[in-house]
Amino acid sequence: MSDITLTSTEIGAAGQLSLSPEEHKREQRRYLLRRTATAYLFLVPAAVFFIAFLVIPIGFLFFYTFHNGGIISPRVYVGLDNWRNVFRDDLVITSIKNTLVYCLMAIPSVFVISMFLALVLQQATRGGSVFRSVFYLPTLTPYVVAALIWQFVVHRDFGILNMTLVKLGRDPVNWIGDPDMALKSITMLEVWRGVGFWTLLFLAALIGLPKELYQAAAIDGANAWQRFRHLTIPLLRPTIFFAVVMATIWNLQLFDSVSIMTNGGPQNSTATVVWYIQQTTFAYTDKVGFGAALSFTLLMLILVLALIEIRLLRKR
Amino acid sequence: MAQVEFIQVGKSYGETGAVHNVNLTVDDSEFLVLLGPSGCGKSTLLKMVAGLEDVTAGEIRIDGRVVNYVKPGDRNVAMVFQNYALYPHMTVQENIGFPLKMTKVPKDQIRERVTRTAAILGLDGLLDRRPEQLSGGQRQRVALARSIIREPAVFLMDEPLSNLDAQLRVQTREELLKLHERLQTTTIYVTHDQIEAMTMGHRIVVMRSGVVQQVGRPQDVYDNPANTFVAAFLGSPRINLQTGKLDGATFGGDGFVVPLNSKLAGAASAVTAGSDVALGVRPEDIEVRVGAVEASGDKIALDGVVSLVEPVGSDLYVRAQTGNVDWMARTEARLPVEPGQAVTLVLNLEHAHLFGEDGRNLAS
Question: What's the confidence (pLDDT) of residue B143?
Fold first, then answer.
């Protein structure tokens, strides 16, 4: 049987159009303009802040990479000297290396712990909200307070970690005094502080996953690990993608805990890029231009790493 | 293929009971439908068979084995969910093969069985697509394919057609029946749709508030409802239930009197004269006539006035008032009646029922 198509004139009598095609076009343009104008209007506050506090300072920063001084001493044009120095300075290479090593230790650790805690909290039938608050508390603690608390944890003589080790019959560890241990201690503090945030993020994503899929998988014979591996991880892909990129951006800017706990030492073992930028820009004020060039280097590093991650994670 | 037995099965959430004392045997190869309104416990009962809900009282046995404490994946059952529960990040092929992959079936065997199952359900050309690229009907078939690939002992279906449009629902209903005919797998099917229940089930189980109201072949349940709930739940438009009192061999309603036929008089003998009872007459057992009609045999004539006319194409639903009560009649589509018109309602009491004060059918 062939389909029968009726035209609108066959179905009912045709009415007369009120506007000519030109008038329709004109009215449509006006309508679209009104709609777009509203959108732009709402964007204005954000755009003003973006330009005033990001675009203009970045422009100034770039300008300063070609100068020395400028804060208490007069500004002097030095061409590409600062850029050349960035790649010649040993501490720059050390600080980049330390920052990357720290990221490689901290990000996987915090994600594994947070995912584990999120999975546990998701299953918790009682006391879930209490534990959520407990885990989130370190994230709410100001950096200075957190770092001071942590000094009591890692203190060589009366820190809780060493006291525990001694009780267990092991030798105490010089957590922040030993160049081999200092960056690991900083990592522990940062992981402790970050776990709450990432746990809540993963938990929110886990709660949003459809329950039926897990029921179907259980009936299909998938055990808990198989359900995690074949359902949870792929379904959380957008969240994990966001988390990896954001964690990279944030962790490459490690500063506060280093500044408070070790000030880059011992033997520059905890010198990170942002700590070095702060040192060159504000501790030795004649090196503002060098600090600016270093800041730009970090910006490039973050951009490149984030882009690589986006490329890798966006596959499929 | 397997037999499923429910022995004194109950389910409660704390103090709240969801399913009460269900005793039922689903025979090998049977297509059993659990029917009832939302919240009646039918899905809970199904999930208890699947292992997705704990059994808090009694036993569920599959082929004689108590499965109360067996993991869902080890019960040899497969389930089709209302929203299909397809894995969104997997292709059709991966979805169908998932149960085999989880049980470590070799890859070449999985591929071969997926191809075979997809062919049965007409999914051959869709194997590389993802669920989001499929229509509702196609998703439904993928969910079915995933459930049959394991060749389970029992199929569990939780309102699998409710997300489909009316036309596709009828088509898929037929396909499901053909599939059952072919595979002969014991099937427990949950629905709130009486048409699905009537057309698909070898037997239906009508549930209400966690309690089984009646079990039987669809036509038997329709013709001999155990109580007013079953009578009202099955049939569209719903059965006319008029309350009144028995007086010898007559039923006295609100402003009308119906002399009982021998079948109803026999049922009425179970209660004392003057008892409150309800007379149930299905709309298709009421004829609407224009002009006077003589009562004869099982047929009783009542004068009425039409209050509403609803044409549905194949039939005409006529609501008419007699005394102080309304009757709904399902009559021939082109009957020339209109609201306000005086008519005669001819009640055929051959299939009518009398229900006692507690709602039970007095004939049962």
Answer: 93
Distance from the B102 Cα atom to the nearest Cα atom in chain A, whole angstroms: 5
Q: Is residue A151 scored above 90 in pLDDT?
A: no
Strands B342-348 and B353-355: unpaired
Half-sphere exposure of B24 (CA within 13 A, CB side): 27
Same domain? B217 vs B316: no
B312: in domain: yes
CATH number for the domain spanning B34: value is: 3.40.50.300
Give tens-digit pLDDT for A27-51.
Answer: 999 999 999 999 999 999 999 999 9
Domain of A30, in residue numbers: 20-77
Task: Give the number of other Cβ atoms within 10 Å of residue A199's Cβ.
Answer: 25
DSSP secondary structure letters along A172-183: P--TTTSTTTHH
> Across the interface, do A237 and B87 touch by the CB < 8 Å criterion?
no
Q: Which residues contact A24 (CB under 8 A, 6 or more apart)?
A: none
Same domain, A136 and A29: no
- Cis preceding-peptide flag for B106 (omega within 30 of 0): no
Query: Closest Cα partner for A273 from A91, A84, A87?
Result: A91
**Peptide bond before residue B237 is cis, with ω within 30 degrees of 0:** yes
Q: What is the mean pLDDT of residues B249-256?
A: 86
Q: Which two tokens stand for residue B19?
A: 């399913």
Indicate whether B360 belongs to any domain. Answer: no
Domain count, chain B: 2
Q: Which residue has the higher pLDDT, A270 or B294?
A: A270
Residues of chain A in contact with residue B75, where contact means CB-CB under 8 angstroms, are 219
The number of domains in chain A is 2
A156's tokens:
């060589």
Domain assignment present for residue A2? The answer is: no
Return d(Cα B141, Cα B161) in angstroms, integer: 11
The two three-digit tokens of residue A124, written as one number: 């918790």
Tell me: do A243 and A168 sit in the same domain: yes
- Residues in chain A within 8 Å Cβ distance of B74: 221
| B205 and B245 together in one domain | no
The verdict on residue A7 lying in a domain is no
- Specify the DSSP class assigned to residue B227: B
Q: What is the pTM of this model?
A: 0.82
Cβ-based neighbour number of residue A133 at 10 Å: 11
What the block records as the tokens of A230 is: 């074949």
Q: Is A220 on the interface with B (CB under 8 A)?
A: yes
Question: ∠B184-B185-B186 over CA atoms, to 5°?
Answer: 120
Are A220 and B50 a contacting pair at CB < 8 A?
no
pLDDT for residue A12: 56
Q: Which of B206, B232, B258 is the last residue of a domain?
A: B232
Min distance B87 CA to chain A CA atoms (Å):
7
pLDDT at B313: 92
Integer Cα distance of B350 and B263 in angstroms:
8
